[in-house]
Inverse folding.
C-alpha cells in the first residue's frame, strides 16, 4: 500500500504486550509518536489475546477509564485472539524457558501465551513489548528497538519474532535432559 | 477469527486516535488522583 510519500509500506502484524498498552495510557504524546513511527514504516495490524485485554482493563477503577481504554483498542482496530486456542504448547515453551535458566517464578502465563501465538504464526506476527527481559534469546530473535523518551526517562520497545529453529532446539534439549535425569 | 487466519488491515483514524489518547490521559490522571486520595485516607 503506497503512503502519502509514495513508497510502499509493509503489512505487518504486531502482537502488543500489556505493558506497552499501559504505557500508552500514561503518556498520550509518546504513544502517538510511537504509533506514527510504526505507521510510516509499516501498515500495522494489531493483535492481543484475552489475557492482555484483562491486564489492560483490570486497573480501570472508573467506568469512564474502562470505556476509554476499550475505545483505544477499537480505534487501533485491535483484534482480540481467544487465548485457549493457543494452549497446546504453552507448557513446553515454559519448560524450554526453565531449561535455559529462567526461574519458574519469572515465567508468566500471559507472556507464554504471547510466545505460543508467535509460534503459531511464526514469522508472520511480531511482538512489541517494553518488558524485554520476558522474551529471552533462547526462543526469540529481536528485529528492532524503538525508543520512547520523556523527561530523561527512556522506555525501549523491542520488536521480536519467535524462532522455530530455537524452539525445536529447545525441544531436543528437553528430551536430552529427560534422558540424563533418568540415568 | 480462525486459528490460522489473520485479520485484514483497516485504516486507523489517527485524528481520533490522538483525541482518545488525550482524553484517556486526562481520565487516567483523575483516577490516579482519586486512588492516591483513598490511600492517604486509609493510612
Amino acid at each position: 500500500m503506497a503512503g502519502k510519500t509514495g513508497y510502499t509500506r509493509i503489512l505487518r502484524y504486531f502482537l502488543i504486550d500489556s505493558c506497552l498498552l499501559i504505557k500508552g495510557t500514561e503518556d498520550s504524546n509518546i504513544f502517538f509518536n510511537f504509533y506514527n513511527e510504526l505507521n510510516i514504516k509499516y501498515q500495522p495490524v494489531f493483535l492481543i489475546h484475552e489475557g492482555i485485554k484483562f491486564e489492560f482493563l483490570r486497573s480501570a477503577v472508573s467506568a469512564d477509564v474502562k470505556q476509554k481504554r476499550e475505545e483505544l483498542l477499537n480505534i487501533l482496530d485491535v483484534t482480540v485472539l481467544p487465548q485457549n486456542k493457543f494452549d497446546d504448547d504453552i507448557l513446553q515453551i515454559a519448560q524450554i524457558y526453565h531449561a535455559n535458566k529462567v526461574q519458574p517464578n519469572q515465567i508468566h502465563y500471559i507472556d507464554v501465551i504471547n510466545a505460543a501465538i508467535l509460534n503459531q504464526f511464526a514469522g508472520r506476527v511480531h511482538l512489541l513489548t517494553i518488558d524485554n527481559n520476558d522474551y529471552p534469546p533462547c526462543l526469540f530473535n529481536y528485529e528492532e528497538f524503538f525508543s520512547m523518551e520523556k523527561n530523561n526517562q527512556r522506555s525501549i520497545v523491542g520488536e521480536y519474532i519467535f524462532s522455530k529453529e530455537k524452539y525445536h532446539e529447545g525441544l531436543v534439549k528437553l528430551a536430552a535432559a529427560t534422558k540424563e535425569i533418568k540415568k | 477469527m480462525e486459528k490460522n487466519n489473520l485479520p485484514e488491515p483497516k485504516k486507523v483514524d489517527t485524528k481520533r486516535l490522538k483525541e482518545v489518547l488525550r482524553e484517556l490521559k486526562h481520565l487516567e490522571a483523575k483516577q490516579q488522583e482519586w486512588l492516591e486520595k483513598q490511600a492517604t485516607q486509609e493510612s
